[in-house]
Amino acid sequence: MENEIFKALADPSRRTLLDLLHASDGRTLNDLCAPLQMSRFGVMKHLNLLEEAGLITTRKVGREKLHYLNAVPIRQIYDRWVSKYAEPWAIELTSIKNELERETNMENKPRHVHRIAIKATPEQVWQALTDPAKTSKFWFNCSIRSIWEIGSPFELWNQEGKKQAEGIILAMDPPHKLVMSWNLLSHPNTAGESASRITWEIDTHAELHGVTLVTVVHDEFEQALNTAKVLENGLPIILSGMKTFLETGTTLAGS
Questions:
Q1: Which of 16, 38, 70 is the last residue of a domain?
Q2: Does residue 48 sit in helix, strand or coil?
Q3: Could you tell me which Gene3D superfamilies the record lists for this protein (predicted)?
């Protein structure tokens, strides 16, 4: 997969498409064709290669097919080739996206979409999400607590005994879907914001045996923009850490 990622990044037109999605996520093919001096077919070909490399994801909303920058593979490249040569504090300074620029007039449009393939079963992924002993291995050393019923609360606690986040279980279909409201308490500029929403979609890979696709959608954060900025960078780290933990039993440095 790394070879596919580096090959996809080698083309300047594909890097331009990633830059366009960096600036404004969830764009249609027509939106992406406008800034590029190439045919619609050419742009589609580049988008397909980016999707095959996992660098973008797509979702259907009505009749539109929307394209999203998927920061998880970029985060994995960073973890593999950069972070082990850098000082630990560099992780805190690295940002996949520097600003939140998400102006849209499309209703019910998913705002942040991240996806990763994990060599594990959906049941193993579900357990990793809901078992406090396992979340502490990849969720910034935090353990999740809940009775896991629709309408019940959940809380995320760090090792120092401080609550970092809380919310309500809005919907669940084990081991395939989990929807939760999200209040981030660990940052001064997020603690007073309204709740946003996180949706976990866990699906067996259609072609690869023993592989599960995990997609995380963060939306409904119009009144929680500071939370959105934190999760935009944090969710790729969590997903990368989950993959490392489930596939190797080890943890990412700093996770």
A1: 70
A2: helix
A3: 3.30.530.20, Winged helix-like DNA-binding domain superfamily/Winged helix DNA-binding domain (1.10.10.10)
State the average pLDDT over residues 128-148. 95
- List pLDDT tens digits, range 3-28: 788 888 888 899 899 888 888 888 89
**CA angle, residues 121, 124, 128, in degrees to nearest 5:** 145
Mean pLDDT to the nearest integer, 63-83: 76
Instruction: Please state the separation of Cα 150 from the chain's center in Å.
Output: 23
Contact 237, 252 (CB under 8 A): yes
Query: Same domain, yes or no, for 119 and 51?
Result: no
pTM confidence score:
0.67
Kindly state whether residue 37 falls inside one of the protein's structural domains: yes
Q: 1: domain range?
A: 1-70
Q: Residues 116, 218: one domain?
A: yes
Tell me the CA end-to-end span of the chain in Å, nearest whole number: 23
Please, what is the Cα angle at 24 between 18 and 29, to 5 degrees?
Answer: 70
Q: Do 117 and 65 fall within a single domain?
A: no
Per-residue pLDDT, 71: 77
Return the axis-axis angle of helices 40-52 and 12-23, rounded to nearest 10°.
Answer: 80
